[in-house]
Amino acid sequence: MQKGHRTPSLSESSGRVIQHGSTTYWYGLPKGGKFLVISDVHFDSAKCDRDLLTKHLNQALADNAGVLIFGDWFDLMQGMYDPRRSYSGLRPEYKSITYLDDVILDSAEYLKKYAQIIKFIGRGNHETNIEKRLSTSPIDRLVQELKHAGSEVVPGSYSGWIKFQMVKASLMLHFHHGYGGNAPRSKGMLNADIDQKEWPDADIIVSGHTHQKWHLPVTVERITTNLHVQERSVHHLKLGSYKKLDRFAGWEVEKGFQQPRLGGWWMEITLQRLCNPVDKILPVVIITEAI
């Protein structure tokens, strides 16, 4: 489907992401669903915990849970022009003249088993760095390979919105791969107030980049046009990482980064009928840690 602004029907978008605008996406969920929400996998890094990643993707496959990846699937720091490159961080299978191609094709081969549940792969700073320096998009190239395997995965932007449309209810997720520093003391939680102000229509706000991992539910008050006051929860999710910190040497340890808590989050969306004060169907979000 070409990029446009036509609103798809619920049946047309059921179980898959459809791009609506340059940074907006539509996801049909007639009765809700379950998702694995992750970022900062750094798949090609020698420090990526691929055993944990495989464990979580196998769980998602068994549960038929959609997988949403919000940036930095790739590491790609060992190529030309990258000041962070370190030969010791290069996996043996990628020590070739076609380094970039080898990483993309290896990622595609790994993900083919999960092609039917991979729904969205957004850009992170590691991918946009390659776009800027080498004039190619590793995310778009990966998605092309996965589509050959029957996937309906959509390549995504660095920041944007996904609308989950259910029967008589909807839910808005705002994503941003991440910004700012590592915030070793606050873990980035102070940004939740800023994000809440910046994206007041969001029911879920997710971000990555810093390799911090936390879930902060915030209760907000909304009022309808009929003057019905309602309280609802906004879920702020910092997505963590699958890349372990090597204390010996390298970019992360030199910058004073802390050992991250690995893994992502399970997000389950269900429907609940509210009978008082009005008869209304509301979406409910359940967040649990993927460990």
What does this entry look like structurally?
By secondary structure, the chain is an alpha/beta fold. It has a single domain, classed as Purple Acid Phosphatase, chain A, domain 2, CATH 3.60.21. The protein is 22% helix and 30% strand. It has seven helices and 13 strands. The chain has a seven-stranded mixed sheet. A six-stranded mixed sheet has the order 6-5-4-3-12-13. Helix 6 (191-198) links the parallel strand 8 and strand 9 (204-207). Helix 3 crosses helix 5. The longest helix is centred in the first third of the chain and has 13 residues, at 50-62. The two termini are 36 Å apart. The mean pLDDT is 89.
Characteristics:
291 residues, alpha/beta, Purple Acid Phosphatase, chain A, domain 2, seven-stranded mixed beta sheet, six-stranded mixed beta sheet, 13 strands, 30% strand, globular
